[in-house]
Structure formats: C-alpha cells, structure tokens
Amino acid sequence: MKTNLKNQLLHRVSLLGKSLQYSAAASLIALSTAHAAVIDWKSNAGSVTWATGTNWVGDTAPVKDLTTDIARFNQTSYAFQPQATVADIISVPPVTSGEINGIQSGNGTTVTAPLILSTGTGKGLLNLGNSGIVMYANSGTFTLGSTGSQGVTILADQAWVNNSASLFTVNALAVDNDSSANPVLTLSGSGAGGYTFGKIEASTVVAPQVAGILSLRFNRTGGAGPITFTSSNTLLKGVQIGDGSTATVT
Fold first, then answer.
1. Smallest Cα–Cα separation from 213: which of 233, 241, 231?
2. From CA 104, how far away is CA 138, in angstroms rounded?
3. Residue 173 and residue 169: Cα distance in Å, rounded?
4. By C-alpha distance, which of 179, 122, 188 is closest to 155?
5. 150 near 121, Cβ under 8 Å?
6. How far apart are CA 232 and CA 25, in angstroms?
C-alpha cells in the first residue's frame, strides 16, 4: 500500500515537472518569436516628415523608442525621402533626437531606389536600438545623413548587414559615451556593396563628455565589398577582424 502511494506521488511529481517544462518551453518560444513591428515608408508619402503618420503604411509612424519598431524603406521610387530631424521628432530631454529600434532597406526581392535618410546634427542624430540596420539584396545605395555632420548614434550592441551590391554610407557615427558598455558594432553581409564611414565621434547627447570607445567587428559571410573610413576617427579603439577582411583609411 505504501509502495503504491509512493509510486503515485512520484508519478504526479513527474507529471508536474513535465508540465513546468512544457510551460517554460512555450514561454521561451513566445519570447523568441516576439519581434519588433516593421513599419514601411510610403512610396507616395506626402512630405519628408518622419513623424507624420500618413507618410507610413498603416498611417502610423514608428514608435519613438529604441525597442518597438523597425523602419523599412522598400520603394522602387520615392515621392519624398524621409527626414528624421529634431524638428520632426521630439524625444525626452536631454535626448533631443529621434529613436528607432532598427532600419531596413529593401526586402530581398524588390529593386529599391537609392535612399538618403536625412537626420539632425549633434544632439539631433538618429538614435539606433539593437536591431541595427539591414540592407537586403537588390537594395539601392543607402546613405545615413545628407551631410557630413548627419547620421546615427549607437546606443546598444548591434549588427549592420549589407547583403546588396550597393554601397552603404554613414556620414557621421556617434558612440554612446555615457555608458561603460562601449557598444560593439558588428559589420557583416554577403553583398559586394561594402561600407563607407565618415567621422566617428563621441555622442553629444549627454554632458559632461567622457571617453567613448567603439569596437568594430568585421564578420564577413562571403561579401567582398570594401570597408572604408574617410576621416580621422579617434574613438576607434578596437578593431576585430575574424576572417581576413581589411579596412581602408583614406
């Protein structure tokens, strides 16, 4: 009798353990499948204003934070190209620029038109979350910043991927220098388009300034495009090249 009772208890404990495992597995699957929403810029947008909802498919602009939405530009032509400037997006002080979880150019099949994404300068650089940037195959040239002082600020470790034959240009890249995390930017991609970087600088979002460090990892997966730095980049403290890729400084 005692043996039967013991066996029943052990069986129930076993079932409970399996139930907890299934619940945990379901939770992990739910977490792994959760992802940021992709919001598409309209090819017939009525203006350049990033924050205007009707310029985006679904008539709602991407949420202004670092974790929610990914902005995608997937047009064969543009009525207006977007401007993510301080005048268009107001964030919580002291951050006065726009924020986005990530950016995509193309979808892998559409041959997209060249895109220049205008941003603010200094404190107005577009802040990027950890989804980073992806240029899909058949993407046209993609330029962050319409001038040498425009571009993005990296606020978290992230990957930038260029799978296209078109050049990806970043005029200004700022590093979050209010953190000891020292964000790591990993460059990869199967395309031959390559990357060109203008100035790399400390973020001017938060004062007082502290020394910033940006580590670049070149992680090629078959692409042969060049990686070029076109100005003095005093914050480039660590460069990791794991596959024989080389960077050119001009």
1. 233
2. 12
3. 10
4. 179
5. yes
6. 49
Between the CA of residue 195 and those of 86, 125, 143, 248, what are the distances in Å?
Answer: 26, 19, 10, 10
How buried is residue 65: exposed, middle or buried, by Cβ count under 10 Å (0-12/13-18/19+)? Answer: middle
Q: What is the pLDDT along the chain (250 residues), one digit of tens a residue?
A: 444 544 443 344 343 333 333 233 233 223 333 467 999 999 999 999 998 999 999 999 999 888 999 999 999 999 999 998 766 554 444 455 678 999 999 999 999 999 999 998 877 888 899 999 999 999 999 999 999 989 998 888 889 999 999 999 999 988 765 555 567 888 888 899 999 998 887 665 444 445 556 777 777 666 667 888 886 665 555 665 555 555 555 5
Residue with structure tokens 């914050």? 235
Residue 158 and residue 183 in contact, taking contact as beta carbons nearer than 8 Å: yes
Q: Are 83 and 116 in contact (CB under 8 A)?
A: no
For tokens 């929403």, the residue is 37
Residue 226 in tokens: 């060049």
Helices (H) and strands (E) in the chain, counts: 1, 16
- Write out the two tokens for 136: 């899909």
| Whether the Cβ atoms of residue 42 and residue 76 lie closer than 8 Å to each other | no
- Region of 19 (left: φ > 0; alpha: ψ -120 to 50; beta: rest) is alpha
**What span, in angstroms and rounded, lies between the C-alpha atoms of 91 and 166?**
32
Amino acid at 66: L
